[in-house]
Specification:
It is built from 3 helices and 10 strands; from the N terminus they run H-E-E-H-E-E-E-E-E-E-E-E-H.
């Protein structure tokens, strides 16, 4: 990946984080939200080292969470919609995969190619899994401590 592309992607991530923070702040700013319980939290699932994001039904509704299926691509590679692909500040690529009811685990992926609206990866997810396509930026924000709740 070129340095210019990395810079643009980092800028997009910062923009998404700012947007997520603004959206999260708006969710928590109403007087009635003080009485509500948090709509997301981080938990470490048994057998894993990386915390997963757990949403309440309200949290999932607020971010409009949607998923798409991972398909088998050429030579056994996995493909999924570009909307699921996230970029960490260091340029590393990741997706969120459902790990249970309203629980989403971050998987780091190795991108092989991006063709139009499809991403082909050589590791990180396999055909048959699902990836978060809408709401992934908010999950990343929660995971990285951008906001307290969604």
């Amino acid at each position: 990946m070129s340095d210019m592309r990395k810079m643009r992607l980092a800028g997009l991530l910062v923009g998404a984080a700012v947007a997520a923070t603004a959206g999260l702040a708006g969710c928590a700013s109403s007087a009635s939200s003080a009485a509500q319980s948090p709509t997301s939290k981080l938990v470490t699932l048994p057998g894993t080292a990386t915390p997963s994001v757990v949403l309440t039904p309200l949290g999932a509704q607020r971010i409009g969470l949607e998923t798409a299926s991972v398909s088998a691509g050429p030579a056994g590679a996995a493909t999924f919609p570009y909307a699921a692909l996230l970029y960490e500040p260091n340029g590393q690529t990741a997706v969120y995969v459902p790990a249970g009811t309203l629980t989403y685990a971050r998987h780091f992926v190795q991108v092989d190619a991006i063709n139009g609206g499809q991403v082909t990866v050589t590791s990180g997810v396999t055909a048959g899994e699902r990836v978060v396509t809408n709401g992934a930026e908010e999950l990343l924000g929660v995971q990285n401590g951008v906001g307290e709740e969604t």
